[in-house]
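Quarterly update from the structural biology core.
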Amino acid sequence: MSTAPHEPPREARLAALPGPGGVTAATFAVRPAPEPAPPGPGEVLVVLRRLGLNAGLAHRIGGPDTAYGPGLRPGDVPESDAVVEIAASADPTLPPGSFAVGKVPWRTYGAVRADALRPLPADAPRTGLEAFLTVLGHVGFTAWTGLVTVGAVRAGETVFVSGAAGGVGGCATQFARARGARVIGSAGSPDKVALLTRELGADAAFDHHAGDATELLRAAAPDGVDLAFDNVGGAQLEAAIEALRFRGRAVLCGAASQYGREPVRGPANYLRMIYQELTLRGFTVTAHEESRPAFEAEVGGWVRAGRVRSLHTRLDGFEAVPEAFAGLLAGRHTGRTLIAVEESR
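Predicted structure, tokenized:
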């Protein structure tokens, strides 16, 4: 049985290394992809339904291998987490017509290893496919791991989330609040600030373009911060270090302000880490897979209770990938950036 799409497969490739202006839509190109062969042992053919884009991929363009994947060169097809529909299968756990989530190439139709996918519940389309790439997906697991496993957030603490209206940041804001913390968030526009306080439960928020980040955070959290969840780096990480109380903690999840920059800006106020006995710890979520069942149990309960929601910007059509990735890095989107692909079958 097969549910293959009628349209020829397409893929998005890295077309060129970024110039002085950084990543633009021209960095990527959508091209025809090879027609896949029938699935071999341990393989499935998948139709792309939702593709999640990650800002951290920009760090790998022309750059080093990381825990999230190899460096990318022109002609390479990036990979991201995605929701796929099984078109043909050589694995009984993934029958045709079912849905799964996993890291796959930027391709509308192709073969992947079955063990790279996790089956989704039969009611996934009714739940909303987007949720499995946001609060219940990779970015949600990243936020939960940073807050709970690495950051050990406790009820009553004050938590600062930089980039709080982004994919991971939006989850971290909601999860910290659900865990009983007071939450301060930063974002890149007045509309995003309003979203944080009115819809995502932040107790206070500020537009980081409105002034000096250290002063803005001090005004929002005059008594200091216990835990910082940093997605941005640069000036906002320095602001977090200034705001952290004695023996405060900072979880380093990303550095969106520094991707593609040389030299990368490190914190100039590192001496404060010494006399305040601060802990700064980076993490990659791929090293914490053993925590996934606890994440799914807790966050799944919050979703069912209506305490957290999917925060995403959806763009329709696979051809939107290049512009969508450029828009993600430029801060034009709210929440996770997702591509919806509705190829006919």
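The two ends are 13 Å apart (CA to CA).
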